[in-house]
Design goal:
single chain, 90 residues, mainly alpha, Methane Monooxygenase Hydroxylase, Chain G, domain 1, 3 helices, elongated
Length: 90
């Protein structure tokens, strides 16, 4: 356990940040899950709407520093690829 005043403060800050990051990541995972559900149901329109919301949540999570910006881009890209496979071949 921390003994110095500054170390106690750092410990307190890290706990607060951990909870904040956890909350952000949980929201992101829930948004991705909604896209997955729409894809599983085969509903292209719902999947596109869910993707739009999920992309926003993912980018916000990256902007807050909970995940890296390139990780966010990769997640959005992979989700978009899966949603685009739903549309019928022209």
């Amino acid at each position: 356990m921390a003994n110095h005043k500054s170390a106690l403060k750092r410990d307190k800050q890290s706990k607060v940040r951990r909870l904040r990051n956890r909350m952000n990541k949980t929201q992101m995972k829930s948004a991705v899950g909604r896209v997955d559900e729409a894809i599983a149901a085969g509903s292209e329109q719902e999947a596109r709407e869910a993707l739009q919301k999920a992309a926003s949540v993912i980018q916000k999570t990256a902007a807050k520093g909970s995940i890296h910006k390139k990780t966010a881009s990769r997640k959005v890209s992979r989700l978009a690829k899966r949603v685009n496979r739903l549309q019928p071949l022209a």
